[in-house]
Amino acid sequence: MHPLHQFSLIRFSGQNARQFLQGQLSNDLTVLSRSQSLLASCNSAQGRVQAILRLLELNGDILGLLPRSIITPTLTRLRKYVLRANVIIEDASDLMRIDWTSADELKTSQLPTPKTLGEYSQHQGCIVLRWPDSTTERFMIIQPGAATTVDAQTENKWQLADIRAGLPQVFSETYEEFVAQMLNLDVLGGISFNKGCYTGQEIIARAHFRGSVKRRMFRFSAESPAPIAGTKITVDGEPAGEVVMTAQIGSGCELLAVISLNYTQSALSLADTNTALQMLPLPYTVPTQS
Fold first, then answer.
1. Cα–Cα distance between 40 and 50 in angstroms, integer?
2. Residue range 2-165 in CATH 3.30.1360.120
3. What is the pTM of this model?
């Protein structure tokens, strides 16, 4: 097992929990089941992504997996909308530990092995989630216990795998910077366009139906230390995009960045170091026309 301290959990309980989340998140909560996880974003009224969550069910509650660094603003944001709903929103960070493991390592344990991407199994209070990565077979283990300690090498390895799979995250540096489609959440199945109203829905739906998505997320490499999320990307000194997430690899790095579609064929560079970026493939097709 490899500790993943970068992730944390929010627990939603109460008879109105699913209905509440249906009105707050971008995806259709009726699809969430006891075996298939659900990707969704929490957005501002202006349609800007505040958090990306992966949802699971456990003992009648709903768990929302998200980066530890944004759990406090996400809790504050969601609790504002509870009003009279019968839902309790709790920080479960100190109640569950999160690790990851490879397919080979999982085979040596007594835990079940989910077969399809995003599928999860439950065994004696433990969740085994097959991470929705089409490039590498890896599993997340969520179980009762103290939160894991930081292991920088393990965290970097996980984040690098997410970058290569084109799986974005939002951190404090990029809170409310992107509309959901800019992060390719529509391509990744994180948005329902027929579920009805939710916070931010009007902007996200308008961008979809009017074809007005002018920026998209792509993968790059750079011969420099990994920049922080939110670092600006330029073309000849002009703003062209923003870093979403990064991981170190040797003396260089790989990253996901949201780029204006007008600049995808241009010479892009990191604004803080003027380091050139080289575009790399993603395992899915990014729409380049709006």
1. 11
2. yes
3. 0.95
